[in-house]
Amino acid sequence: MSREPRREQLLNAADRVIQREGPSASMNAIAAEAGITKPILYRHFGDRNGLIRALTERHTGGLLTAVRAALAEPLERRDRVEHVLDTYLAGIEARPQVYRLLTHPEPGDPSGAGNALAPALRQIAEEITRAVQHQVDLGADRDLLAEAWGRGITGMVLAAGDWWLETRPCSRTRMVQALADLLWGRLAAAADLPTAVLPTAPAEPNGD
Amino acid sequence: MSREPRREQLLNAADRVIQREGPSASMNAIAAEAGITKPILYRHFGDRNGLIRALTERHTGGLLTAVRAALAEPLERRDRVEHVLDTYLAGIEARPQVYRLLTHPEPGDPSGAGNALAPALRQIAEEITRAVQHQVDLGADRDLLAEAWGRGITGMVLAAGDWWLETRPCSRTRMVQALADLLWGRLAAAADLPTAVLPTAPAEPNGD
DNA sequence: ACCGGGGTGTTACCCCCGGTAACATCGTCG
DNA sequence: CGACGATGTTACCGGGGGTAACACCCCGGT
């Protein structure tokens, strides 16, 4: 049996274990789940990071290409943005546990999984940057704005999607609307409230 | 000598070591830097997480209160938003190493510092949410929008600020403008570019 | 003067984890 | 057959987090 299929099997096992025990699962545990012992894992993945990386690449690959495709869709701008947002949210919605453990390495966990999503996010940010650069007329500042916005939008969607996935405060389409509205300047356009009380916030000096 | 001062000294030592060796610094190393041995650290902080938590609370406290104050400033909306953005960027600019190691636990690092910033960010998000709820008229959807936007804006600023700090592509004030412009819907308002080529992106199947 | 408690600190140890070395086995191709 | 490339094993190492047990030191109370 050539390397690749076995690799897949091992990744599957690692996946199961990590879903069950969290990202701090030990190499021993993963090996045991696969019915083998550690050195084999190391032969295939080099070190723990290699395993984690392979795992996350597998998980994020689909999402990344989906977002890429959504960005290239020939739609009106607002529709395209909504489409991208929806694609991302649908992606993380499809595998919430996976997504969660990629982004939220439970505290006190000796694993490098915290930034495992980082590469994928960086790539998404780059895609958005490129799309903005090629599709939107921003004048002289285009490069700077496109880059800053690419990162910013990615981070925005990450954080907001994260919260949405945890609390599920509304349907996906409504969430898409909320985020698109934010990007469409609704925060800027809305009227002021009549400056109610606002006593510098009650703010108990509570720490976390 | 009562507990508190010693605690501060230990935190200072931990700080130095972590700045020097990265967040993966061992408890042994920290203890050595403080001129003592491990059990004392454990007496004061319980476990490694306690130490890290105390450390990050110290570092993020100032930033958090600064942002809180900026949010309450009695300014025009755009000015207030810019003020908040500038406050945040100035905060991370002031201690780049600290910020970086809080957010970017170098890969392959067995430390729980990756999410150390998370509580502070959560609090910032809550502050923004409250501010939006109390200051902006958003109609029936106000609660949902305020919450989603609070998270979204926080994530946006985090990601964009992160990138800005790493690459320093422009002055702080320009960065503030770029982000405020994004929130003000400049992406939505800008004209289309004449749909150049855009062949679905070359996209070598390259990983990372 | 004596003791006890709360602080300081130590050495020595445990368990587990990531990672490696050395060795044994099986199937396939020349 | 023999070599090769895969499979797998046991046994070990270094080091990290965390704890137990013990020792000192000072200060306030009786």
Features:
homodimer, 208 residues, mainly alpha, 10 helices, disordered C terminus, DNA-binding
Short description:
With 208 residues, chain A is mainly alpha-helical. Chain A has ten helices and two strands.
Distance between the amino and carboxyl termini of chain A: 53 Å
Outline type of chain A: elongated
Judged by helices, strands and strand pairing, the structural class of chain A is: mainly alpha
Count the strands of chain A? Answer: 2
| Biggest sheet architecture of chain A | none
Percent helix of chain A: 55-70%
> Residue-averaged pLDDT of chain A, rounded?
86
Describe the 3D structure.
2 copies of one chain form a homodimer. The first copy, chain A, is built from 10 helices and 2 strands. In chain A, helix 1 (3-21) packs across helix 2, helix 4 packs parallel to helix 7 (118-135) and helix 5 crosses helix 9. Chain A is mainly alpha-helical. The interface between A and B is large, with 77 and 78 residues. Strand 2 of chain A pairs antiparallel with strand 1 (136-137) of chain B, so a sheet runs across the interface. The first copy, chain A, binds a DNA duplex (30 and 30 nucleotides) through residues 1-3, 6, 26-28, 36-40, 42-43, 47-48, 110.
